[in-house]
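Let's practice the habit of predicting before peeking. Look at the sequence and jot down your guess about where helices and strands might fall. Then scroll down.
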Amino acid sequence: MLSIFRNAFKIPDLRNRILFTLFMLVLFRFGAHIPVPFLSAAAMKEFLGGGTDLFSLFDVFTGGAFSNATIMALGVSPYINASIIIQLLTVAIPALERIAKEGIEGRKKINKITRYLGIGLAFLQGAGLYVTLYNMGSAISKPGPVAFFVIVLTFTAGTAFIVWLGELITEKGLGNGVSLIIFAGIVSRIPIGAHSLYKQYLEGTVSVKGIVIVAAVVVVAIVAIAFVVLFDSAERRIPVQYAKRVVGRKMYGGQSTHIPIKVVMGGVMPIIFASSIMAFPATIVRLVSANSLPTQGVGHILLSMLQPSMGPWWTDVVYSVVYFLLIIFFTYFYAAIQFNPIEIANNMKKSGGFIPGIRPGKPTSDFIARVTSRCNLAGSVFLGIVAIMPIIIGAVFKIQSIQIGGTSLLIMEGVALETVKQIESQMTMRHYKGFLG
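Done guessing? Here is the structure:
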């Protein structure tokens, strides 16, 4: 990977794109340290606590901007939620489906709708967060209408600015801008997490237990990275043969190709969906109770089963099992939205293509559906293992700082691999001389 970046810097156009992307990411990190007026950073840290709810996920994705009460506290989460909503509505609403199939212009319209919906969701989330902080008492220095509009509009403007930066990176830089911004936020938290681990187990008197714990965390991280790289590129190739046909004086077809079915078709989206569902009850309780979660009784037990390391050991087992099953469900759900075997089979039939040994039409769509289902099963089990591995390590060694490490690891690996692939494709395109070379 280092040789790819070194060779890319030798090409002026690619070098400018890489430098532009890095500058945008630095600008994002600079904005993540600008405080919001009327809001106390200490109160935000108190509100965040050490939980694993949606707000903790916000803090990871924003690189600590949420816990520091800065203008980019909401990050790109409202935009991601808007993208998910629009994707689901595109399947349910025929008008949006027609717009999405209009090619480049259709995608521009969908992106515009998503952008406006994301800004609207940012305003609503900012307003809900203001009400919660207001109920805490000491979070807002001068409560009132002015503070409300300043805080909420600042949060909304921060999200809009991040989305704009992401679109600039996508257009003039390298990679997907929004994904790279999330990547930068997660990477910025790695030194803090490493220092916390060192301070907890290796600072001062070094014990055998501390060395074992740190070594276990490092080994798990290396193994998880290796599995992520392996499964990210894994795919099942279905062979397709096109029959020869004569059109006028020319003969078309006769070539062989394949349909690539990725094992991890949904990427990190199933984990994000599952973690959001698991964190939703605790988040609602915190919002309506001004951050006072129950510490005993049935309510405490129920919330412990939806948050790791918050109760007895058996609650972690329940959490891991439910989390694992939700990941499997959302893997199949997301694949069903993104991949339509019937449409693929119909397109193959119209083009004169067929799978060797499989009749065209319904048998072909059934065969593709079976292959996709098997790939989804393998991919969902892999995602589930990567997601619950940090939870198991955290429960065994009582480390809360790596509870959401599975999601972060998948996002970092996926974005890094996709960016490297794009750089490779850009270099291949520029080195290709064509017939006149």
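How did you do? The radius of gyration is 24 Å.
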